[in-house]
Amino acid sequence: MKQTLYVPGLTLAQTFGYDKVNRLTLAVEKSGTVSSATCPDATAVWCQQFGYDQFGNRRLLPSQPSVFDAATNRFACGYTYKRGSVTRNPLNESFGYDAMDRQIAHCPAPGAEPCDATAAAGRNVYRYDAEGRRVRKSDGTASWTIFVYGAGGQLAAEDSTQAPAAGLQCLTQDHLGSTRVITRADGTVAERRDYEPFGADILVPGGSPRQGIGGYPGVGDVTLKFTGKERDQETGLDYFGARYFSGAQGRFTSPDEFNAVDELDGEAFDDYLANPQYWNRYAYSLNNPLKYKDSDGHLPHAVVGALVGGGVGGALELYSQIRSGQDMNWAKVATKTGVGAAVGATAAATFGASLLVQGTALGVVNTAAGIADRALDNDAATQALDPTALRTDAAVGVVAGVVGGAVGKQVQNAVQGSASQKLNERLADHAVRATAGRSASRQAGAREMQRQIAQHPEAMGRRAAGAGRAAAKAGTTAAAQRAAEVLKKRKEEEEQR
User: Fold this and answer.
1) How many Å apart are CA 396 and CA 393, to the nearest integer?
2) Does residue 430 or residue 482 have the better pLDDT?
3) How many CB atoms lie within 10 A of CB 316?
4) What is the largest CA-CA distance in the chain?
């Protein structure tokens, strides 16, 4: 993949490479429009190579050794952990956590033990509300910042003892939501910011082609950086909501609390097991940071939406065919699974955007889904592209997006704690019923699968890879059967004529 950055007085070409499972392996930037896929490259502004172990732990090539514990996916040297979260790093900084494993303190001075939320000079303290959102941070004495959130959960305002920048500032973001340009009220550029693939700032040393270009280097007081998340200057970590992210390491400092056994079931759970990249709870966005972004510190929403949507779509179609007594049409089940995944991913990716954006996105997806559905049932292209049906599909998608988005925001605010757990249990129960016949031992088997994953990750990785190949083969077979049926039907029609 390639992209070109155009700034008045500057042009930069960036090239990115990927491995067979779509993990980023190469990033190169050069002046001008001629790109390069070589690293190291003496003519490059900067370049990075990434390697991964079998568990998806990222390291920089060629110099950084693999220093991960194969049993836990944690750093094996220079770091200490408590319940999976970093409590000390190689700089001898320590971190404290509460009972919910939320970071509540940062102690930069060696020997500041215990590193807790007790106010002390040189100690950074963090506070959270009942919903887990960070509402205050301070240096332990007189300097503090308070964060205020709106009804939808988005950050609405900040109040701080630090003097704000003079005048109005407007932020321009890229496709990931990262702040790239900061302009003043009169339209002039105050700052420009560029990032490495995993979020670290691209530095502007002497001799850099960015040197002398208006807005570089971006050193202002706006702290919303990579994917629009708050970057703490005292730690260099980005606050993602559920946990903190280190752009320098390209991974989170705490494991994801998302539990696939409790949150997913049916086809969604099978899809989760079939892709081992989901299993590393420290990795960022499946190690594909230019495609996916993490909205709240959990498994990327688009991925979860695709898993759940695909599972529900396929299960409902399967249940419908069984209930109607018709012959099994696996091609249609596969299509419904794909449609569900597309709708789920779109809904999750646009959740939090304006209702208009969410409605438009789901309108487009639902229209495409309707075309695919009618194409399976009818050989004639005119029926698949029927104008009336297209308008209906688009309208249903828009209404579903707007209503679903509005209701979803209310549910997001209302469902907390035990209520959220009960809702998940009910949804899991409906998923089991919809797949018509999955026994109650499914959950027990899933938990046993999780235990085996933890104890024998390599063996389970090979098993999951085999399951993925089998699923792909089954999908190919179903498509071939459908194609044969269509050809047979057309041949019979020709003979009748």
Assistant:
1) 5
2) 482
3) 17
4) 91
Indicate the residue type of 337. T
For residue 325 the two structure tokens come to 């007594």
**Distance between CA 25 and CA 60 in Å, rounded?**
9
Tokens 């599909």 correspond to what residue?
393
User: How large is the average pLDDT for residues 246-262?
Assistant: 89
Torsions phi, psi of 409, nearest 5? -65, -40
Is the pLDDT at 278 greater than 70? The verdict is yes
Residue of 247, 245, 227 whose CA lies nearest to 103:
245
User: Nearest 5 degrees, angle CA 410-CA 414-CA 420?
Assistant: 120
**Which residues have CB under 8 Å from 429's CB, separation 6+?**
none
Alpha carbon 424 to chain centroid distance?
20
- Give the span between the Cα atoms of 241 and 147, in whole angstroms: 12
Residue 98 CB partners (closer than 8 Å, separation 6+): 104, 117, 128
Per the model's pLDDT, the better-predicted residue between 351 and 375 turns out to be 375
Q: Is the dihedral of CA 236, 204, 187, 227 positive or negative?
A: negative
Mean pLDDT of the chain: 76
Bridge-based pairing state of the strands 169-173 and 179-184: antiparallel
Listing DSSP states for 77-92 in one string gives SS-EEETTEEEE-TT-
Region at 133 (left for phi over 0; alpha for psi -120 to 50; beta for the rest): beta
The count of other CB atoms within 10 Å of the CB of residue 180 is 18
Give counts: helices (H), strands (E), the chain.
Answer: 10, 20
Q: How far apart are CA 375 and CA 381, in angstroms?
A: 7
Question: Which residue's structure tokens are 């559905």?
Answer: 373
Each residue's pLDDT tens digit, 36-88: 888 988 899 999 999 999 889 999 988 777 789 988 999 988 899 999 999 99
- Name the pLDDT band for 238 (thresholds 50, 70, 90): very high
The residue type of 379 is D
257 CB-near residues (< 8 Å, 6+ apart): 101, 242, 298
